[in-house]
Amino acid sequence: MPQKRVRLDVNDDDGNRIAISLEGNLSREKILQLLDLIDLLGGPQANNAKVEESNLSKLEKIQNVLWRKFPIGWFTSPEAMVAYEDAFDEPIGLSTVSTYLSRLTGKGILMKSGSAARRRYKLIKEVVKEGRRPRYDLVP
Fold first, then answer.
1. Contact (CB, 8 A) for 127 and 71
2. Which of 38, 91, 106, 116 could bridge across to 43 with cysteines, CB 3.0–4.6 Å?
3. CATH number of the domain within which 102 lies
């Protein structure tokens, strides 16, 4: 089995270039930690237009949270609900999250797997490769 390799090149607002390369037995957690580090260093999201969160619909907020918290791997409705509540410090019902996840699946942004009781979701790889991320980014 070939070794996994990840390379990230990021230019920040100050003109600094950050290059990080990882090679070996990479887990989802290690890659997410790397993405968190890039975010802390003012990575690609710093260049996007910022939008006040009050101007976004719940669907847009959920889509943004999914892109930021679950860029790779599978997640469940309860995990998405917790991520939303952590990000926006406001409650949201599990049924509301499930409805929006279903809509995003219908739009071709998410794929789903499992029975209704064990439903999991994942961003579609083509969406990630094409960079079809939300047209907005929230002020942290």
1. no
2. 38
3. 1.10.10.10
Residues of the chain with pLDDT under 70: 1-2, 12-13, 38-55, 126-140
pTM of the model: 0.59
Instruction: Quote the CA–CA distance of 140 and 137 in Å, as a whole number.
Output: 9
| Cα atoms in the 13 Å half-sphere on the side-chain side of 72 | 11
Rounded to 10 degrees, what is the CA torsion of 39, 33, 133, 137?
-30
Residues comprising the chain, all counted: 140
Per the structure, the complete domain to which residue 114 belongs is given by 50-138
Cα separation of 39 and 45, whole Å? 7
Same structural domain, 14 and 58? no
